[in-house]
Description:
By secondary structure, the protein is mainly alpha-helical. The protein is 72% helix and 0% strand. Helix 1 packs across helix 13 and helix 6 (94-128) packs antiparallel against helix 19 (429-449). The radius of gyration is 22 Å and the shape is globular.
Amino acid sequence: MQQFFYILCYLSFLLILGVIIKSKFKIFQDLFIPASIIGGTVGLLIGPEIMGRVFNISTPVVWSKEISLLPSLLIIPVIASIPLGMNLKIKNSKGEFRAILTTGFILFIVTFLQLWIGYFVNFVYKYILNKPLYETFGAELNTGFAGGHGTAGMIGRVLQEMNMGYWETAQGIATTTATFGLIGVILFGIVLINRACKKGETAILKNPSDIPLELKRGYYTDISKQNSLGRETMLASSIDTLAFHMALVFSVCGLAYIILSLVKKYRVPVLSSISIWIFAMLLMMIVWQIIKKLNLEWCIDVKVKSRISSLFTEFAIVSAITSLPLKAVFTYFYPIIIMVVLGFLGTWYCIKYYCYRYFKNNYPFERAISMAGTSFGVFFTGMLLLKICDPEFKSPVLGDYSLGFSLTALVGPFMIIYSITLSLLYNPVIPVIFHTILIIVFSLVIYNINRKK
Length: 453
């Protein structure tokens, strides 16, 4: 337990170091690289994978082994908290409902396409190049791109529970694709924004050089501009609001562990093979419905909940990068590069096609760039690129995009697990065929939704 405390202190130091480095070097500001990635990279450099091999001096090797387990643990409360406070009510017209559904289904198609690309690379290596990769190679593209560094721990957790010896390698590859995706989409996104602005495709932005300095640095020095963390739904005389929200999330996770252990003890069919975070997420859905039935919504603040999940995500990112198994990842260097390049091209042109077809004269570029930010990075990356195009969020894009993303946030992780299961039971061909069918089906659904206006 004492060692865990030391590791937590070490990771906290890396995060603070990341903030300091970003504030001092303009290149990190211009690239919008998060402090957690900078800090994690420093941790990787001074760890046994690099400094330990070159100078035989590094942080303890046992730390790296423990740190590598953190992303797969921290992702449990992150995913479990998703349903808490979620509100999918549509307030306005059928047009808004159509836009939200179209946005959500485009993001679904992107999920299917990224999984298709990943498993297609696996298929090519196994059956055409005769260089078989491990069975589940390919799921890391969507896990890293659309899920981000935090979700990279999910794939490690799932494979670890399935007793797959390569779980750490898969987690490392997912972390690598997440890094490529996050940095790549910011560079690529800014280029696309400048190009679209010059061509007159941006509805609001006229001068892309007017990006606020605070957005680059990652903080406001003016206190009046700093946003609130959320409502204090509880009084300190009873319990701290942050502690209450965190206790609720961890209680659900703990209850999920108890249920899963009983299910495995009595070998309940199907349920025994379900991952812990799925149990936690489903249980949170039930808890949230109970809270609503009892008219206790007032005690939950979505902003506070989001801050908690963001807290875990920051530590998941810095720990995932710090413990990146470089040697194992470089073994798969070429398939990773091929997968990432195809993923970038396929994802962007897929999003652009659907947005420009179904959102004509309705902020098509702004919708495309926000979806691209999310599909290569995280939700915040999409918001960041959208904020450059629409600084005051005057367009309806953010609302449609937020609700549409909520749909995929609930279902997306299940698709990844199902794809992994298919590839283990059969071979890479089945996931490729399965996702081809899903892309066609959802394309037809989007067509039917937008056929009559």
